[in-house]
What we know:
By secondary structure, the protein is α/β, with parallel strands linked by helices. The protein has helices at residues 39-48, 56-60, 79-93, 113-120, 122-127, 157-160, 193-199, 202-205, 219-230, 257-270, 293-304, 326-333, 338-346, 357-367, 381-385, 395-406, and strands at 2-8, 11-17, 22-25, 65-71, 98-104, 129-132, 141-146, 152-156, 164-170, 173-174, 178-179, 233-241, 247-253, 271-272, 277-283, 307-316, 371-375, 390-392, 412-415, 422-423.
Amino acid sequence: xxxxxxxxxxxxxxxxxxxxxxxxxxxxxxxxxxxxxxxxxxxxxxxxxxxxxxxxxxxxxxxxxxxxxxxxxxxxxxxxxxxxxxxxxxxxxxxxxxxxxxxxxxxxxxxxxxxxxxxxxxxxxxxxxxxxxxxxxxxxxxxxxxxxxxxxxxxxxxxxxxxxxxxxxxxxxxxxxxxxxxxxxxxxxxxxxxxxxxxxxxxxxxxxxxxxxxxxxxxxxxxxxxxxxxxxxxxxxxxxxxxxxxxxxxxxxxxxxxxxxxxxxxxxxxxxxxxxxxxxxxxxxxxxxxxxxxxxxxxxxxxxxxxxxxxxxxxxxxxxxxxxxxxxxxxxxxxxxxxxxxxxxxxxxxxxxxxxxxxxxxxxxxxxxxxxxxxxxxxxxxxxxxxxxxxxxxxxxxxxxxxxxxxxxxxxxxxxxxxxxxxx
Length: 424
């Protein structure tokens, strides 16, 4: 009997799978990677040896307004380690710089003060200027031309008026942008809702290059790079983390060169060969990415890549924050099923994209091929069931449900952390 830990919230559940039914365990090697130094030392090394760029301390000289774009509460970016070192580097070159952290909330809800303290620690929250981006606040935006796709590019005014724009983040596989990090700090991080909607249109989400691990020819990535260039994103600090959310590698420097180097590193660690099975068990990597159903679609998409047609996906996701977006929820709650959701979304033009339709589109795509069971004891099951998923309160119950659909002897593949792998 194989016993496999599945991340769940701030803890984990254990999947017990008979050896003769276990088809495979798909894990990123990032979870077993031995870092060459401690977290702080890795970040310092990256800042001292930037890729394709002068050091940040040099870039900061003579600059008055410096804006640091930082990820929001939905991302496990270890800002407690990174932010103090970014500040130290900037102030080494410019002790009098006017520095503001701009939280890249993208299309998410605002980050709370408690979440900011958890992210940065109390000292930075108390001592530094922090502003929350609001994609719906037109007064805080400025038009910046067009995206390569034709959509309107509208960017946060504070970022556009900065003398130096910096971004921190982390790199992991992303289910439609290829990888997180780098240019994503700008789009969708700090752009207007109209820009997010244009970039996340149904045509792009359905594109065969809009998949985890793919940058070349990915239409979303092309738009994102253009937005970062237009915003004059001058320097990034991106890290790679393991299952314990600890830094194992850091990349700093040019917005494109440093990011590509980081993506190559992640790709080498995260790419795993599919092990097709009728049942696939996965997770959204635990807290903070498994706070809602919206984010859980990411983990589902990894399972989709190795689940046989008509098979069952079981995803462990606390979803303690509920569905994660009323618009996302209503796509399903107001529909007769996933086919109606998909049919409606595919008829929507780029310039008419509706909030959160991209997540609904991917969820519906998965549901049309597989039954999905969400395992949670922290979310009202009626919310999940109203979205045409099944719900279970624990893994044994979910396995029983899955076996009733595909049979008691069905093979099982386990992806302990669905957001950390590229299934090829």
